[in-house]
Amino acid sequence: MRRDHWRRYNDSLDPATDFVEIYAKVVAHEFPWDMNQALGFALFRTYAVPGIGRLLDRTGEFTERTQKRYDDTALLLEPPNRLGFDDPGARTAIRRINQMHRAYDIPGHEFRYVLSTFVVVPKRWLDEFGKRPLTSNELEASVHYYRTLGRHMNIKDVPETYAGFEELMDSYEAAHFGYDEGGRRVADATLALMVGFQPRAVRPAMGVFSRSLMDPALRAAFRYADPPPVVEAVSRGLLRARGRLLRLFPARRDPKLIEDLPQIRSYPDGYRLEELGSFPVPGRNGCPVRHDEAATG
User: Fold this and answer.
1) In whole angstroms, how far apart are CA 259 and each of 33, 66, 266, 267?
2) Segments in the chain below pLDDT 50
3) CA distances from 226 to 184, 214, 218, 237 (A)
């Protein structure tokens, strides 16, 4: 296949109506490794918001069952992208996500912020480290995709454009990023999991490498030490070099699915979407409320 096959294919479609198809090709064909990293960093940023990090720490899901939570999150987010929002499997996955969220009193502004990271962080990652940036069609498709996901999650006042998502994310972080012990524990547990995916010989360096990919505001929110400037420059330079090298390879013919990734380890014998995720116990691991009281507006 030609190197620019998926770019040309995506640009031949209408992002207003074909956004699921376009975004699926971005995630599973054109940038599977990059999108996995970028979306992981997007979620990681949310831990730096004390209200989010504190709740995630209190549930224990991210600190005591980190691998399972990582797997469940990835597996539940994939079906709408792979199958479309009307598919029964996608509906089951979104229903499970909503059931988990509605067990806690989560304000609507936090939902909107998390959604914004899914749009903005991948775009910025690919701008810096990808083999190419997203095209305008692909970027618009990602906006439509996450606006649709937001609608299925009953999130109100979702931005209509990429510029709106970008303004939301940047202003929210400027106002809300801050240190919280719970958020730091969640971040530490997540980093430890990510490091554990790497070969044993390189694990000692992976913590510094990961911090090198964080911006100063994110590191400050977790009180992580800044890496030496030369280490940060080399780390980012290596990823940029990888992106340039990938320009020489043909387009990926077969999709790279989440369940095919070696770091998904919790379900060697398979899984059922309706059984993924957490099932909070009232009074023990959160702030249970009735579904009609969940703050999503």
Assistant:
1) 13, 17, 10, 9
2) 284-297
3) 15, 9, 10, 17
State the pLDDT at residue 260: 87
What is the residue whose two structure tokens read 């510029």?
Answer: 163
Distances (CA, A) of 9 to 25, 84, 86, 144, 244: 9, 18, 23, 18, 21
By the 8 A CB rule, do 236 and 128 touch?
Answer: yes
Number of Cβ within a 10 Å radius of residue 275: 10
Asked if 280 contacts 79 with a C-beta cutoff of 8 angstroms, the reply is no
3-state DSSP call for residue 277? coil
Nearest by Cα to 104 from 289, 265, 237, 264:
289
Identify the burial level of 290 via C-beta atoms within 10 angstroms of its C-beta, where 0-12 means exposed, 13-18 middle and 19 or more buried: exposed
Mean pLDDT of the chain: 92
> Which amino acid is residue 201, in one-letter code?
A
Would you say the pTM of this structure is higher than 0.90? yes
DSSP class of residue 52 equals H
